[in-house]
Each structure stands twice: as structure tokens, then as C-alpha cells.
Amino acid sequence: MAPVILPDSSIFIGDLREGRDPFARFAPCPDDCEFATCGMVMTEVCRGVRDPDLLRRVRARFEVMVYIPTSNVIWERVTQLSWALDRRGVALPASDLLIATCALHVRAAIFTHDAHFNHIPGLEVIHSLE
Predict the structure, then answer these.
(1) How confident is the prediction along the chain (130 residues), in pLDDT tens digits per residue?
(2) Nearby residues of 40 by Cβ (< 8 Å), 6 or more positions away
(3) Where are the domains of the chain?
(4) pTM of the model
(5) Overall fold of domain 4-126
């Protein structure tokens, strides 16, 4: 199975704010690598895009990524993870917990600028594709 990477919305949003194509960042990844997304990443990214033409292009690029649906199993795992982390004094945004759980579900690494993901047990976090 090819390695799967789920880029967090922080990757997309940072590049878009600086006028760069966030998808160009994926080029250094080996050919057998697959990129995934989930509804929360798509929502966080697309909600901030103001230009309808850019939004259409971003959505078209998301459509060719592996999509991780948020089933009841995912939501139950988010609930368990948030409860366990809260008991340890680690309160993370529910959106990050959902994204992390989607990645864990398909054994994907998270590509992010967000330090929150470093607190998720068993999650592979990467900060560069090179």
C-alpha cells in the first residue's frame, strides 16, 4: 500500500494567504504517495476562499484526493480521543481531533504546521515533504 498523507488545513490556508498554490507543495512526494482529505479540512480551507474561481479550482483539486468519510465509527473515536486527552489536561479543538482521527483511521500521516497534532497518540506528524 502506498503511503497516505493527509495535509491539514494549515498547509492550504498558509499557502493561499501568501498567494501560493498549496497543491504545488505536494510535488516532492514520491510517485507512489497518495494524498487524502476529509470534510473538515475541505470546509476549513474552502470557507476562507473569497474568489469563486479560486474556490472552484481548489475544490476540483480536492476531488482527486482520497476522501475519508466521517462515519459513526470515526465520530465515536473522536469522542473517545477527546475524552482521554481532556483527562490528561490536553484540550484540543474538536476540528483537529476529527482530522487526526480520520488520518488514524486510514493510517495516514498528518502534514501540518499545527502543533496540536503532536499530542495525538499514535499519529504520525510530518512538517515537510522533502
Answers:
(1) 458 999 999 999 999 999 888 888 887 677 778 999 999 999 999 999 999 999 999 999 999 999 999 999 999 999 999 999 999 999 999 999 999 999 999 999 999 999 999 999 999 999 888 7
(2) 9, 70, 95, 98, 99, 102
(3) 4-126
(4) 0.92
(5) Rossmann fold (3.40.50)
